[in-house]
Amino acid sequence: MNLRDIESKDDLRLIFEAFYKKAIQHEVIGHFFTAVVPIDLKTHLPIIVDFWEYNLFHKGSYNKNLLAIHQHIDDKFPIIYEDIDIWVSLLHQTVDELFEGTQSGRLKTNALSIATVMKLKIAKDC
Ligand code: HEM
């Protein structure tokens, strides 16, 4: 199947709507989004899309400290390496279902490198 590449904020919205459907229902990591820090997708999605617009296209003004935000989540319920691996693989799977190309590859690589920093700085290996 020929898929096109990620080009716009609308494309990012499609990815993260599909990603959160999987993440929220996931038996291992779902509780982070429903119980540890219950997220309201109406307010959460635009923030995530702004983050990735800035990350991929250097547009917009997302400037919050992602590590501090996730440290705060870990303080409420410990994040372990396995959670992060699942998060990354759900995102990679979602991108691969919808898009392919340079930006799609960059999104996956950038997510993996941020996730690796989260492992080193926040998560526990157990
Ligand atoms: C185990 C892995 C992860 C879990 C369980 C998780 C969970 C969460 C939760 C519950 C929030 C909402 C926080 C709040 O509203 O206070 C959040 C926010 C966010 N997460 Fe994650 N996350 C994970 C990994 C990642 C990774 C690897 C990235 C980036 C590559 C990421 C990007 C974001 C962004 C951009 C926000 C929005 C922050 C803001 O409000 O400005 N997350 N995450």
Please characterize this protein's 3D structure.
By secondary structure, this protein is an all-alpha fold. It has a single domain (9-121), classed as Globins (Globin-like), CATH 1.10.490. Helix content is 71%, strand content 0%. It has 6 helices and no strands. Helix 1 crosses helix 2 (30-36) and helix 5 packs antiparallel against helix 6 (102-121). The radius of gyration is 14 Å and the shape is globular. The mean pLDDT is 97. Bound molecules: protoporphyrin IX containing FE. Protoporphyrin IX containing FE (HEM) is lined by residues 29, 32-33, 37, 39, 47-48, 51, 64, 66, 69-70, 73, 79, 83-84, 87, 111, 114-115, 118. Residues 29, 32-33, 37, 39, 47-48, 51, 64, 66, 69-70, 73, 79, 83-84, 87, 111, 114-115, 118 line the site of protoporphyrin IX containing FE (HEM).
- What is CATH's topology name? Globin-like
Number of strands: 0
Task: Name the CATH architecture.
Answer: Orthogonal Bundle
- Sheet with the most strands? none
Q: Name the CATH superfamily assignment.
A: Globins
What's the shape? globular
Number of domains: 1
Order of helices and strands: HHHHHH
